[in-house]
Description:
Residues 206-382 form the L,D-TPase catalytic domain. By secondary structure, the protein is of the alpha+beta class.
Amino acid sequence: MCIGALAVAALLGFRSDSPAIGHAPTTDTPAIILEGAAADAAAIQRFYRARTHRPFWTDAAADMFRRMLANAGEDGLDPESFSAAITATRQKGMDREILLTQALLDYVRALRTPSESNRVFYVDAGLAPQTSADTLLRATADPPSATAYLAQVQQMHPLYERLRKALGDYRRTGINPTRLPNPDYEQALLINMDRLRALPADPGLRYILVNSASAKLIMVENGQSVAEMPVIVGRKQHQTPSLAGLIRFSVRNPYWNLPPDLIQARAARIASDGPALLEQERLELLSGWGDDARILQANEVDWPAVAAGTAKLRVRQLPGPDNMMGAVKFMLPNRLGIYLHDTPAKQNFARKDRLLSSGCVRVADAERLYTWLMHGKAMGAVNATELRVPLPEPVPVYILYLTAFPDGGSVVLQNDGYGRDPSRRS
């Protein structure tokens, strides 16, 4: 949110008639609360106090920032929203200093945060874009100059930058490597750039990217893809959410806890045909989810009530080769219950349409992924005992919905199976 320089200056205690921001603040700071901007104003106040009110914005930095804001459309942002700051870059003294510092916060947030329609659920807060005013202003202390900081601000994840280049190429030359009409191609680039804002410019040495649109997993190390594999993601009615979290441990030989809809379906069959299904599918009944839950016998359960959804029951499948979780699941504990896991149904990975799960991500080569996460340690055989295995270090996984994906110097369209792209809706 851009706010007026004089209003912010009043809140910070700078005199409105001061020729430069280096002047000392007054002692009678008005108690002004600016809606939606108080936290920023307080952070800006701390920032300049720490600098003993020395200016941050040199003429060179202000001119560079003016060009960045004027060209904000290259990132799908609206330059008009920064019009006051663009004008202020040609001013001097306090007005320019305060307006540009606030505009810098607004610009970085807009550049690095997906819009609400492309919201990402961050399991671990440290993976989310760091957009607090204090954090952003503190980062200005590291580069050698304001212009160096501005250059750093514009750096984005390599996938984003490749789509940004494709957008620029299209707008300059009309290059469109896809089957989409030109306006729709531009819109596809913009919406996927917005989704890619969720990835940090520097995602670290090792991370996993799952593209739920293409149903593919990529293992990245030192900025390079070291392996790819098909995955199975959620059906359209049980869409895999966009999220980011740290895989902290794996579970070998896991139980599979059936979701409520499958429990009801099996309960209806048992109510009709008897409990033989429990032995056939190696299912175990429990009284609850706590540590004190006890194993139930089939005759202790009101099966019609469970089938109707009026009674609750925990059902899990025992570990083993036929377990729906396969040999291992990769855990990033989260309230959505989303994780990556193996599956015995390997034939499904050959399908073109791999929207088949209830939301979790099934991986084609769990052993390869496990070995990579464990720095070369093999997974070993499946047995009947569930075992938690911590990773040597947590590894980020980003699950995003990317329907336009960079491929070399081109862009490849992915299936819009969830119907999230406005330009591709029939």
